[in-house]
Amino acid sequence: MSEKLRSHRVARDFDSASLAVLESCSLGEVAWKKGECILTSGDEATRCYLLTSGDVFIQTTPPGRSPTLLQTIRGGDVLGWSWVIPPYRWAFDACAATDATAIVLDAAKLLAASEADPRFGYTLMKRLFTLLTDRLQATRLQLMDLYGPRA
Amino acid sequence: MDRARDPVALFAPETREVLAVRRETADTVTLTLAGGGRGFVPGQFAMVYAFGVGESAISLSGDPYRSDVVEHTVRNVGAVTAAIGALKPGGVVGWRGPFGTGWPLVRARGGDLVIVAGGIGLAPLRPVILAVMADRGAYRRVALLVGARRKSELLYTEQLAEWRARFDLEVEVTVDAATDNWRGSVGVVTRLIPLLDVEPSRTTAMVCGPEVMMRFSAKELLRLGVPSRNVFVSVERNMKCAVGLCGHCQIGPLFACHDGAVVPYDRVAGLMEVREA
After folding, report:
1. Are B157 and B201 in contact (CB under 8 A)?
2. How far apart are CA B247 and CA B252, in angstroms?
3. Is A62 an interface residue toward B (CB < 8 Å)?
4. Which positions in chain B have a beta carbon within 8 angstroms of at least one beta carbon in chain A?
């Protein structure tokens, strides 16, 4: 488990102390079958998932319509940021696009550990911020109609 | 006289009959033209002339080992490409080429190869894939990352399915918008790069698509650890003479037609950041 955690993009380069704190927040591993629903928008965001394999769709379901796929995230990504900030509710749905696995972290423990050990908290938030920035920049490119004739 | 040294021959198009037209997407077709590609290197282009309308630089998109025909995948983006794209079998175009530089296939041998294509950018890379498939043992891991706006705008869908079915080629396809019942990957093609399983120091990357996409792809490749000298992009400008004389396709000190279209990223990285009116 610690090996899987250590090799994940979030924890890579963590020192042993930070890794130990992160591991203490772990709830173990989870496996989803293709098509299985993982998160539902509006539900309380109590967990952070470090995807280790497979693909997951981030999606939303407009009223009266089938789900709209917004983005695919993959092994190495983080699923779920909403546990970091109020109101601690998932903003979108997530479903397994393929069979997928993840390390599950307890969000309350992560927040408490970050408060108690700001060095750990800062390290964790910097890493999450890096991944979040990557996701934001990719979303901007996705929005700009990259392949249009004037791109 | 050697055609390459004969200035008249360089500018005088030869006539080529359209043998077949295959519709790829709503605005893109692939034309098969009679006559070989004069030993073209993947990545090179030809000037294709729609009689009475004008001439346009179009990448060679077919099999480089075929000596009887050439293929061009043409997207309708203006009067000339609209006229070329409207041709039927039996029609005739003017053709001169091949011109420009090619993808560094020889240099890539023995290492990992990453091919990143966005939109119509898959067309100039298709000859690379065909050449690699014909000589697969010469390369280690080969990954093809393809991005498109939506499913209906993907090129060569049948061939993509064939390539995906192979066990010696990693093919990832992603779209920006999941329309048309798309259930595959959603997101920009650059997001696929950090997840590549390659040995960066031994990787050659070939990137073709809109300049913004190439710029961000190159940055992701560099972040992955691929040396900048091993990242190649295909630059596109309005080409007229195609032989480095007229200057229409100038990008800073480079002529896209003569010094490119394929250039090492570290040679154009700064130029690709320059705003143009």
Report:
1. no
2. 10
3. no
4. 75, 77, 118-120, 147-149, 153, 174, 176, 178, 182-188, 190-191, 194-195, 209-213, 216
Instruction: Summarize the confidence of residues A16-32 as an average pLDDT.
Output: 95
Q: Which residues of chain B neighbour A70 with C-beta distances below 8 Å?
A: 178, 186
pLDDT digit string, tens, across residues B152-173: 999 999 999 999 998 899 999 9
Asked if B194 lies within 8 A of A134 by C-beta distance, the reply is yes
pTM of the predicted model as reported, rounded to 2 decimal places:
0.91
Contact A146 B185 (CB under 8 A): no
B245 and B231 in contact (C-beta within 8 Å)? Answer: no
Name the residue range of residue B28's domain. 3-99
Residue where a domain terminates, one of B99, B118, B134: B99
Question: How far is residue B142's CA from residue B148's CA, in Å, rounded to a whole number?
Answer: 20
The answer to whether residues B116 and B205 belong to one domain is: yes
Whether residues B71 and B41 share a domain: the answer is: yes
pLDDT in tens, B38-64: 889 999 999 999 999 999 999 999 999
Q: Looking at the structure, do residues B204 and B234 belong to the same domain, yes or no?
A: yes
Least confident of A3-7, B96-100, B146-150: A3-7
pLDDT in tens, B186-232: 999 999 998 898 999 999 999 999 999 999 999 999 999 999 999 99
Question: Nearest chain A Cα to B190, which residue?
Answer: A138
Q: How many CB pairs under 8 A join A and B?
A: 69
Our count of domains for chain B comes to 2
Residue of A75, A137, A151 with shortest CB distance to B210: A151
What residues contact B252, with CB distance under 8 A and at least 6 apart? B268, B270, B271, B274
Q: Give the Cα separation of A23 and B230 in Å (integer).
A: 38
Contact A71 B187 (CB under 8 A): yes
Separation between Cα atoms, residue A29 and residue A27, nearest integer Å: 7
d(CA A47, CA A109): 10
Look up the CATH number of domain A2-143: 2.60.120.10
Q: Both tokens of residue A127?
A: 């890493």
pLDDT on residue B248? 84
Residue B1: pLDDT band (50, 70, 90) is very low
Q: Are A76 and B194 in contact (CB < 8 Å)?
A: yes
Instruction: With CB atoms and an 8 Å threshold, state whether B119 touches A149.
Output: no
B268 in the same domain as B141: yes
User: Same domain for B220 and B237?
Assistant: yes
